[in-house]
Amino acid sequence: MSHLRSSARASVRVPVVAAAGVALLVAGCTSTKSGGSDDGSDSGGKVAIGLVTKTNSNPYFVKLRESAQDEASKKGAKLIALAGKFDGDNQGQVDAINNLVAQNVKGILITPSNSTGVLGAIKAARDKGIVVIALDTATDPASAVDATFATDNEAAGVKQGQYVKGALKGKKPAIAVLDGTPGSTVDDLRHKGFLKGFGLTNGSPEIKGTAVTNGDQTKAQTAMENLYQRDHGINAVYTINEPAAAGAAQALSGKSGVVIGSIDGSCTGVRNVQSGKFAATVMQFPKKMAQQGVDAVVDYAKDKKKPSGFTDTGSQLITDKPLSGLESKDTAWGLKNCWG
Amino acid sequence: MTTTQTSPVAPEGDTTRPPAKTAVARALGNTAAGPLAALVIAVIVFSATTDTFFNIDNASLIVEQFLVIGTLALGQTLIILTAGIDLANAAIMVLGTLVIAKLSQDALPAGVALIVGILLCTAIGAVSGTLVTRLRLPPFIVTLGVLSVLTATGQLFANGESFSVPSGVLTFLGERSYLFGRIEVTYGMGVAIILIVGLWFLLTQTSWGRNVYAVGDDEEAARLTGINTRRTLLSVYVLAGFVYAIAAWQALGRIPNADPNAFQTGNLDSITAVVIGGTSLFGGRGGVPGTVLGALVVTVLTNGLTQAGIDSLYQQVATGILVIVAVAVDRVVRRRAA
User: Fold this and answer.
1) Where residue A62 falls among pLDDT bands split at 50, 70, 90?
2) β-strand pairing of A107-110 with A131-135
3) B268 contacts in A (CB within 8 Å)?
4) Which domain holds residue B270?
5) Using one digit for the tens of pLDDT, what is the confidence trace for B213-237?
6) Mutate which: B163, B261, B280, B307, vs A, most A CBs within 10 A
7) What single-letter DSSP state applies at residue B11?
């Protein structure tokens, strides 16, 4: 997911600057209130729904928030949107949950920064009768929340792997793996899915090199240049997200015949598929997550019926060079459905 | 080397200078020796352990990879020499790339967009410098604030988009040509050489440069000797802002796409390069050659370790250890000098 990009900020190399990180942390979480009138006179009649995203800045979460906002307005509910300060800001998310509990929301939609980091606050909220739904990223265990609406990231990775393998058209694969950030749940699932779709394991000799890119286009470019310098035979690239794919494409510009696959479904990413910078991307649907999450809370407020289980909001292979046996949509469709 | 005319740092409150330096102190004070040794060792090790490292193509690649972070580190060097620190340098550069790219998309001629971007980065440098000199705020806090403001401004400005730039003036620094028909070079390398020589000249051959070292060494003592310390400090931040603008131009040459989420660790990477380059975080000692070597060391480590097939996390470990060693050496040198 593109939100990986912001986690890079958490990596601190120089002791002096660690203090800067601490200072940023102290500033706490950011908040935007929106939806409905907030003057108290009529808010009593409206269902209040809390939304806690990983960050406020990432376009992916901006889209998620906007979609939740639209859906809430449509259903006559009030949305209170809060966010962590950066990806991995567990404390900011815990503060946000506590804030929402204090504001008597009916339900909380959360994209947990970390699968286990916010479980205590979630339990406290559920004990008060608030329905809690995970969006985009599942908690561990999944039963810590009432329900989850998310992309099956492993399945999305499988689609990338299958496509890249197929696009090699029988050539012997020599793969560069451009990972996101080690330890991220979503990254691990995508990586695992890609290998599964390709029919490989981490130790397979077809993998010529692996690099951590934090989903940053410049780091991905440098990593790809170095891996290609190491092995000029590389003909397939796994990327954690579209900025990483863009960096890889830049590093390989002028070298034909390398198949780059990606995941995310941003409009920039789809345009890069259209222009041939990379071969395919796998789109996910934050809008669906937001809509279904809001609807579930509204339903709960109406008839006390709690949602449950994992709902896969789906993922879609986007390419202009379809392969037989792999269901895909073209970039024209992609540009109509991309998230930002 | 640049440091020959600087004197070792006197302890706090002690404004008397030590007498003429001993040969040992001069050798130790030669801050570029450490990073040079590290670079030579790294090159030897990677040449011996991989088949792909020691060749002219990879040398070109290393220099290309060095350009953006090296340029950021040059600006950072100016500020660290005055005992300051700039946490906002990469954010200034990224905002520069965004503004340049957006303006050129909105049908301004590319050259004009570039000039606006350069003026903007320089002006931001002037704002930081004014806050540091007029309000006497610590550079750490000022640039932390500027970092936060600019990161958010970049996101708001870009509104979730990234902007690609057309080929031409804006991507000129990334264009390649071949020396002797064999050695791949970019125009960005030429600009970097001009910048390096220019800054080296300013710092070592002009009275302005001597003032910068004096202010970094001991601001109060510099003021007492008649140096306008405020004006010197302000000029350092303005010049650094200009250097970050050149980094923005270099960045567009590397990837013709301005992304608000790029270079999130650029500030730390540039500080890392400066510190490994032997410039003292306490100010007044170090300089351009050390920083160039420091940035090359960082680039070579990433390049070589990747080709040796070593996990990226170990690359961060290696860089971190080098930083600590560099700061420890600086500490020892300071103690001996005192």
Assistant:
1) confident
2) parallel
3) 11-14, 17
4) 30-337
5) 999 999 999 999 999 999 999 999 9
6) B261
7) P
